[in-house]
Design a protein that fits this description.
The chain is an alpha+beta fold and 86 residues long. It has one domain. The termini are far apart. The longest helix is centred in the N-terminal third of the chain and has 17 residues. The chain has three helices and five strands. The radius of gyration is 15 Å and the shape is elongated. The protein has a five-stranded mixed sheet with strand order 1-2-5-4-3. The relative contact order is 0.14.
Length: 86
Amino acid sequence: MLDKMIELKEMHDDLYKNKGFIDINSGGVHVTTDFFYDTFDDFEVIERENYQHPVELEAEHKGVKFFTVLDNKEAIKLRNKKEVIA
């Protein structure tokens, strides 16, 4: 069991450093914003009650939730982009 945990940690470290992966928990897979935009075209925008990260983007792949959180500047850019499209 310890060897599997070590293997998992090594895989986690590689994904974190090189692939846009941040964390995984019971809520889903947390990825960087760049990775999220590069990977998903269809996603849900969720307003959060968090001053520093007011928006969360969510998408699902094979039944697993992937998400990223946007800081204030990123949230403003997204809102402006959505106004231009609408």
